[in-house]
Amino acid sequence: MNNSDPWGDKKIEFKMPNFKYKGLLLSLIAIVLILLWLASGVFIVKPNEQAIVKRFGKIIKIVGPGPHYHLPYPIETIDKAEVTKVHRIEIGFRSLKNGGYKTIKEESLMLTGDENIVNIDFIVQYKIYDISKYLYNVVDVPKTIKDAAEATIREVAGKENIDEILTTGKNRIQIETQKILQRILDDYQTGVKIVAVQLQDVEPPAPVIKYFKDVASAREDKNRYINEAEAYANEIIPQARAKAASMILEAEAYQKEKIEKAKGDAYRFIETLKSYKSAPEITKKRLYFDTMEKILKRSEKYIFDSDIKNLSPIIGLDGLNQGVKK
After folding, report:
1. Is pLDDT at 18 greater than 80 in this prediction?
2. Residue 246 pLDDT more than 50?
3. What is the pTM (predicted TM-score) of this model?
4. Band domain spans which residues (predicted)?
């Protein structure tokens, strides 16, 4: 049996590595890694954002939109937030992608001041005005806003009766909820400003909704009739006042005219009396002729001549006077 070496007679040779080229390659790799590390400090802030630069966890600056640079991690880090966007929180419902919505009963059902149950869906809109407070003072600001808004509107609704909530009290509830909610968030130092609180659906529970709608409809009819009556009154009253003022002016003018006429008649009577006292016969004749002139002026006049027997003794003067120019 041949016990020869299975590797044969070949000799194994070991070559020493070229440390010169290997060191150069490692240096190039290190330089590339350092350049990539340094390049990781470049960042861009979008137009609707602000960014906070922190060095070892301490805030060193706040930057606005555009390209910026910070020392690479872990020396410096950045946090961003959308400060110009109006953020929206839905309470009592959630919008669905297909355009509908889903009701969240545990958020929407509330107890009113007159111990009725009402279903209120609403949204809260807010903007970030202090990015550092928003990012670092509260762990989860949107959840804090949602919880505070839900508690606030329950407090406000608990002071109102259900009729007011369903009809004329909606705007008051929105304003009061926004005011109280803003005060709470300011106390928490959240760095947000509430833009609006908007009630979406406000209705009683499903089993009794029909009866509440009937009541609301009757109240709306009542308000409409009142408004129509007030509009009619506002139209008629000025017209009546104008007519009354016109009648008063006409009466005053008529009164003034009569007074002046009476004064003129009295003056003429006094003058006639003086003339009568000084010359009674002449005054009588003048008054007689004046009176006859007034009477005859309005009547048809004839002359009777008794000396003419056979011919018509009547001569009409009006026909003769038509050709005479006065």
Report:
1. no
2. yes
3. 0.58
4. 40-216
